[in-house]
Amino acid sequence: MSFSVQLYQAIDELDPKIRKVLIDLLNEVQVHMSRVATREDFRELKKVVESLAVTTKELAEAQQRTETRVEELAEAQKRTEQRVEELAEAQKRTEKRLDELAEAQKRTEQRVQELAEAQKRTEQRVQELAEAQKRTEQRVEELAEAQKRTEKRLDELAEAQKRTEARLERLAEAQAKTETELRKLVQEHRKTREQLGGLAHTVGYRLEDEAFKALPALLKRDLGVEVLGRLKRDFLEIGKDRYLEVNIYGTGMHDGAECLIIGEAKTQLKKKDVDTFLQKAGQVASLVPKEQVRLLVTYQASPPVQKYVRDQGIFLYFSYDF
Of 226, 227, 220, 221, which Cα lies nearest the Cα of 250? Predict the structure, then answer.
């Protein structure tokens, strides 16, 4: 005897344990029916089996709804467990926050204690200031007395000032007389300086005059320079109504070429005189572009100045060389 396809499909959807029991039962029924069942019995059995198939299908559907519900409960359980986990984390944060609040409370209590101590110190300071105020008032009283003495002293100083002003008036008259005498002395000093300046020029001109006579022979002997014409004092025009004074000026021949002889005479030669001469020689070179023979003539020059002159390529002659 065979069963319908619908019956087997319904059986496959049952729980494995139920499916096994039902299959075993059907097998037993089939064996029994093959032995003793009549056609009428078979029809009755077929109705039972069909009823059993319907019941089996209903059981399968109920089983499916049960599994769906179980799945929903499992998901709900997961959500519940997740929520419990979140609540546990929140509880941990709450406990941590409570610990922090407890620590903050301790710090607050400590700060209150510090403020109480500070209040005590403030009250003590206020007491000290009150004492200081008393001393200040006493000091002000003393200063008031001192002010009275100062005013008295100022009156005395005012009288002394009057006497001083009278004394200054007499000193001013004496100063006027002194200034008159000083002006006379200044005038005499100016005359003396003019005389000394004239004497210095005279000495300088005397040195130049001796140089004019002696230099041609010295230049020929020492440098091989032949002086053309004569050496002289001269003024070179450097602009409109502007002239450059040169103490020693002339031309010469050196190694077959014409050269310019330029020099300066100083009674006592100093480094600044050398620098001034070099500047002047540069100006002359821009006016007369010729090879220059540069020389300095003096009565006296210190060893460092002599070395500085020679380092600049300038020839140095002393009055005793003449």
Answer: 227
Burial state string for 198-235 with b = 16 or more CB within 10 A and e = fewer than 16? eeeeeebeebbeebbebbbebbeeeeebebeeebeeee
**Which whole-number Å values give the CA distances from 95 to 89, 108, 159, 267, in the listed order?**
10, 19, 90, 106
Q: What is the DSSP string of 113-172?
A: HHHHHHHHHHHHHHHHHHHHHHHHHHHHHHHHHHHHHHHHHHHHHHHHHHHHHHHHHHHH
Give residue 293's pLDDT band: very low, low, confident or very high (50, 70, 90).
very high
Close Cβ partners of 290 (under 8 Å, ≥ 6 residues apart): 251, 258, 259, 260
Measure the CA–CA gap between 42 and 182, rounded to whole angstroms.
Answer: 171
* Cα–Cα distance, 195 to 189 (Å, whole number): 10
Bigger pLDDT: 228 or 74?
228
Cβ count within 10 A of residue 141: 10
Q: What is the pLDDT of residues 123-163, one digit of tens each?
A: 888 788 888 888 978 887 888 888 889 788 888 888 888 88
pTM for this model (two decimals): 0.40
